[in-house]
Amino acid sequence: MTAKDIATVESKVRAYAQWIEITIFVVNSNFKVEGAYLKWGKFHVPGNKDKEISPSQINGTIIKDEDSYTIASCGRENASSGTEGGFSLYDGDKLVFEYYWDCPWSGSNSDELTVKDKENYTVSKKGGGSPSGATGNIFITVVKKS
């Protein structure tokens, strides 16, 4: 392995250390993911940071009643940026919540779950909370009230 190969591997490891995986569980309705975007980093197949996917592969995804879906993102190799982005969840045409995260290369992690309809949906979030490094696994549960 050459010095260049080692530098490439080290760069990938540092960038990939800034990551988030958001798993959304839904109950009592089918929900749709829309508006997925990134300011920094890349979306990838959950569990495989080398398999990049585009926002269009996430947007429009239907999460069926009593099922889950995971959105994964990390920093890019050779870029000291981490990952920053967000998405929205809809029940038909009704906006249920917006979620935003910032997992920077340096500085403090942050995220925000904004519930748009508390009267008709119960939304809870667990996980994350690390002030630096990877944000890690986030679990969001959405229940449509009967």
Automatic annotation (TrEMBL):
Q: Which GO terms describe its biological process?
A: symbiont-mediated hemolysis of host erythrocyte
Per its UniProt record, what InterPro entries does this chain match? Aegerolysin-typ (IPR009413)
Which domain of life does the UniProt lineage start with? Bacteria
Q: Which Pfam families match?
A: Aegerolysin (PF06355)
Give the family this protein belongs to, as stated in its UniProt record. Belongs to the aegerolysin family.
- Annotated protein name in UniProt: IP-1A
Which organism was this protein described from? Alcaligenes faecalis
